[in-house]
Amino acid sequence: SWVRLTRVGNTFTAHRSTNGTTWTAVGSAVTVSMASDVLIGLAVSSNTAATACTATFRNVTLTGNITRLN
Q1: Are the CB atoms for 12 and 20 separated by under 8 Å?
Q2: What are the residues whose beta carbons fall under 8 Å from the beta carbon of 11, sequence distance 6 or more?
Q3: Max Cα separation, the chain?
Q4: How far is CA 67 from CA 9, 34, 46, 59, in A?
Q5: 16-27, pLDDT tens digit by residue?
Q6: pTM for this structure?
Q7: Distance between CA 24 and CA 50 in Å, rounded?
Q8: Would you say 57 and 42 are in contact if contact means Cβ atoms under 8 Å apart?
Q9: Which of 8, 11, 17, 62 measures 20 to 30 Å from 27, CA to CA?
Protein backbone atom coordinates (compact mmCIF):
# COMPACT_ATOMS: atom_id res chain seq x y z
CA SER A 1 0.00 0.00 0.00
CA TRP A 2 1.09 3.56 -0.70
CA VAL A 3 0.17 6.79 1.08
CA ARG A 4 0.71 10.28 -0.30
CA LEU A 5 0.33 13.43 1.81
CA THR A 6 0.60 16.74 -0.02
CA ARG A 7 0.97 20.20 1.47
CA VAL A 8 0.38 23.31 -0.60
CA GLY A 9 0.65 26.35 1.66
CA ASN A 10 -1.52 25.44 4.65
CA THR A 11 -3.73 22.96 2.76
CA PHE A 12 -3.17 19.22 3.10
CA THR A 13 -4.59 16.43 0.94
CA ALA A 14 -4.24 12.68 1.39
CA HIS A 15 -4.30 9.90 -1.21
CA ARG A 16 -3.83 6.13 -1.17
CA SER A 17 -2.76 3.67 -3.83
CA THR A 18 -2.32 -0.07 -4.22
CA ASN A 19 0.34 0.27 -6.92
CA GLY A 20 1.99 3.69 -6.47
CA THR A 21 0.59 4.88 -9.81
CA THR A 22 -3.19 5.19 -9.49
CA TRP A 23 -4.23 7.40 -6.57
CA THR A 24 -7.55 7.74 -4.74
CA ALA A 25 -8.33 10.75 -2.53
CA VAL A 26 -8.93 10.00 1.14
CA GLY A 27 -11.35 12.45 2.74
CA SER A 28 -11.33 16.16 1.91
CA ALA A 29 -8.60 18.76 1.88
CA VAL A 30 -7.78 20.13 5.34
CA THR A 31 -6.41 23.59 6.11
CA VAL A 32 -4.04 23.90 9.09
CA SER A 33 -2.37 27.19 10.02
CA MET A 34 1.36 26.48 10.20
CA ALA A 35 4.72 28.18 9.97
CA SER A 36 6.55 27.84 6.67
CA ASP A 37 9.21 25.67 8.38
CA VAL A 38 7.98 22.44 9.98
CA LEU A 39 9.42 19.14 11.21
CA ILE A 40 8.41 15.96 9.37
CA GLY A 41 8.39 12.45 10.82
CA LEU A 42 6.97 9.00 10.19
CA ALA A 43 5.33 6.84 12.86
CA VAL A 44 3.63 3.49 13.28
CA SER A 45 1.33 2.19 16.02
CA SER A 46 -0.24 -1.13 16.95
CA ASN A 47 -3.08 0.78 18.70
CA THR A 48 -2.59 -1.53 21.70
CA ALA A 49 -0.33 -0.41 24.56
CA ALA A 50 0.91 -3.96 25.29
CA THR A 51 1.66 -4.84 21.66
CA ALA A 52 4.81 -3.68 19.88
CA CYS A 53 4.92 -3.34 16.11
CA THR A 54 7.43 -2.60 13.39
CA ALA A 55 7.16 -1.11 9.93
CA THR A 56 9.39 -0.52 6.95
CA PHE A 57 9.09 2.79 5.13
CA ARG A 58 10.31 2.68 1.53
CA ASN A 59 10.25 5.13 -1.35
CA VAL A 60 9.91 8.14 0.96
CA THR A 61 10.19 11.37 -1.02
CA LEU A 62 10.28 14.91 0.30
CA THR A 63 10.10 17.86 -2.07
CA GLY A 64 10.61 21.55 -1.56
CA ASN A 65 13.25 23.28 0.54
CA ILE A 66 14.37 20.39 2.78
CA THR A 67 16.91 20.61 5.62
CA ARG A 68 17.80 17.27 7.23
CA LEU A 69 18.33 17.18 11.01
CA ASN A 70 20.68 14.51 12.38
Answers
A1: no
A2: 29, 30, 31
A3: 39
A4: 18, 17, 30, 18
A5: 999 999 999 999
A6: 0.71
A7: 33
A8: yes
A9: 62
